[in-house]
Specification:
This is Fatty acid desaturase. The chain is mostly helical. It contains 14 helices and five strands. The two termini are 28 Å apart.
């Protein structure tokens, strides 16, 4: 991949197309049997319902815990489940749970429940752009804005950004590219607000206001922890931050793939977004010559630590592509 960079205070700019289209063609030519991996993960719906039920159950009864156990449960249980639900929504919005898109959309609503705010359909819109216009300036909202990169610099700046990145991840897209509001975005909004109203009304009615407030705090802190100081948040950094010049996307092959639907197999996922995460390890086994030579990770914790401490890795460490449709300021 040909990239250039004017300075350390600039992004990497690629002159060619994203790497996944060509690698996909090359793999299909060498291994046409890869097409047999296309399809859905029939277990996805069960995992999703199970994890959502567990998270909302813990939220309901966490008012019985003292502060220290409350925080420990929130961090180790709540944040892990929430991040798993982030990636469940990711899988489901690729239509990996059911054959019909409409059924996937409904399941995405369910996966969205523990996140409190309506998120699933907005994510589906922006994530599709991330795949098909990877790195394109003004289109791919996965890349930190110039303002973020200029403001959050050095170790302290990166720590502040890192622990609150979930808010940037949620709000940045709307600042860069207005959300296309369709009926599914509206349905998601109505469904989520209705479920939250029924849930908190029920908890308040049967268990009291303290229980409802504890549940709200548990869900909120689970969300904050999941998107910041949590091992699973390493996937936000590991996927596309340039740690090795000349490579744009990176895979992670560590144990946390077990609770994140194999999102760590990220080169594989971008190469074949029609293969469910459960079968991405098989893709790598079929075509090792295309993946074994790429830089990859085995620890998201190590990725997070290097991001925070390596002065050469900043919010500018992303690959962008010029967008001819953007007007110059």
């Amino acid at each position: 991949m040909a990239t250039h960079r004017a300075s350390k205070n600039d992004y990497y700019w690629a002159d060619d197309k994203e790497p996944h289209f060509q690698r996909r063609q090359d793999i299909l030519k060498a291994h046409p049997e890869v097409k047999e991996l296309f399809g859905i993960n029939p277990k996805m719906k069960y995992f999703t319902v199970l994890w959502v039920t567990l998270q909302m159950t813990v939220a309901t009864f966490c008012y019985q815990l003292d502060w220290i156990p409350f925080l420990l449960v929130t961090y180790f249980v709540g944040a892990t489940i929430i991040h798993g639900m982030f990636l469940a929504v990711h899988e489901i919005t690729h239509d990996m749970a059911f054959e019909k898109k409409v059924h996937n959309n409904y399941l995405a609503f369910v996966a969205n429940i523990p996140m409190v705010a309506p998120y699933a359909m907005a994510f589906k819109y922006y994530h599709a752009i991330h795949h098909w216009d990877q790195g394109r300036d003004g289109e791919d909202t996965d890349i930190p804005t110039l303002g973020e990169a200029m403001l959050f610099r050095g170790f302290i700046g990166k720590v502040i950004w890192f622990v609150s990145q979930i808010f940037f991840y949620a709000l940045r897209p709307m600042a860069i590219k207005p959300l296309k509001v369709d009926k599914w975005v509206v349905y998601n909004f109505i469904f989520q607000l209705s479920v939250m109203f029924i849930y908190f009304y029920s908890v308040t009615t049967f268990l009291g206001l303290d229980a409802a407030l504890s549940a709200a705090l548990y869900l909120f802190l689970s969300l904050v922890f999941a998107g910041g100081l949590h091992p699973t948040s390493g996937h936000f950094i590991s996927e596309h931050y340039v740690f090795e010049e000349g490579q744009e996307t990176y895979s992670y092959y560590g144990p946390l793939n077990l609770v994140t639907f194999n999102v760590g197999y990220h080169n594989e996922h971008h190469d074949f977004p029609r293969i469910p995460g459960s079968r991405l390890p098989e893709l790598r086994k079929i075509a090792p010559e295309f993946y074994d030579n790429l830089h990859s990770y085995n620890s998201w914790v190590a990725v997070n630590w290097r991001f925070l401490t390596d002065k050469n890795v900043t919010l500018y460490s992303r690959t962008k592509r010029k967008n001819p449709n953007l007007k110059k300021a």
